[in-house]
Amino acid sequence: SQELEQSPQSLIVQEGKNLTINCTSSKTLYGLYWYKQKYGEGLIFLMMLQKGGEEKSHEKITAKLDEKKQQSSLHITASQPSHAGIYLCGARPDTGRRALTFGSGTRLQVQP
Amino acid sequence: NAGVTQTPKFQVLKTGQSMTLQCAQDMNHEYMSWYRQDPGMGLRLIHYSVGAGITDQGEVPNGYNVSRSTTEDFPLRLLSAAPSQTSVYFCASSYGQSREKLFFGSGTQLSVL
Questions:
Q1: Chain-chain contact of B42 with A9 (C-beta, under 8 angstroms)
Q2: Which of A50, B42, B56, B86 is the most buried (most CB within 10 A)?
Q3: Are B56 and A45 an interchain contact pair (Cβ–Cβ within 8 Å)?
Q4: Which of A10, A29, A100 has the highest number of chain B CBs within 10 A, making it the mutation to test binding with B?
Q5: Chain A: nearest CA to B65, how far in angstroms?
């Protein structure tokens, strides 16, 4: 089965600093999805990547999918306290099941 | 806009009790799913449905039942609660070609003593 590993597991940064979160798959990704979870709430969709080499940005968050489609990175520029939360990557499994599997998440704290 | 509504938000059960976690969506989404979130393990898929009358198992289905009699509702039943089922449960829905863009409820925190 496909496994998604996220690194780091947790991250504490000072406000204004840049940071990167990685998501690595054990198999080729047929779609990679980034979600954010605020503490105590449900997940919110951020971005979807499907093509090798694809890069998407939304406000100060940029996500990339590498050419081999086995790793994705999420980069936050000039972090703000509003960026705090848990970031999870999700992927379509290769089993034909039409539901996402998720990584274990990266917990981000942004200190003012 | 209500979106995906989960009830209850918190629940405490004793081992062996049964209960149903409710999930309703008002977006006419055909896909619905249940996940559980445990510390350090991310989200794990319990059951999912691709439409009314159709359900299938996810990664961790044991101890849980689901049914999908209407497009709007997708309840999750715990048959005989066990401490290992202490978790935060999330319901999600999606539609059409964007089925991986999930809309999540706010979760149910369940403790089994």
A1: no
A2: B42
A3: no
A4: A100
A5: 17
**In angstroms, how far is CA A66 from the centroid of its own chain?**
13
The two three-digit tokens of residue A12, written as one number: 């504490």
Length of chain A: 112
What's the per-residue H, E or C state across chain A?
CCCEEEECCEEEEECCCCEEEEEEECCCCCCEEEEEECCCCCEEEEEEECCCCCEEEECCEEEEECCCCCEEEEEECCCCHHHCEEEEEEECCCCCCCCCEECCCEEEEEEC
Distance CA A33, CA A25 (A): 12
- Which residues of chain B have a CB within 8 Å of the CB of A104? 40-42
> Do A97 and B56 count as a contact with CB atoms less than 8 A apart?
yes
pLDDT tens figures, B7-33? 999 999 999 999 999 999 999 999 999
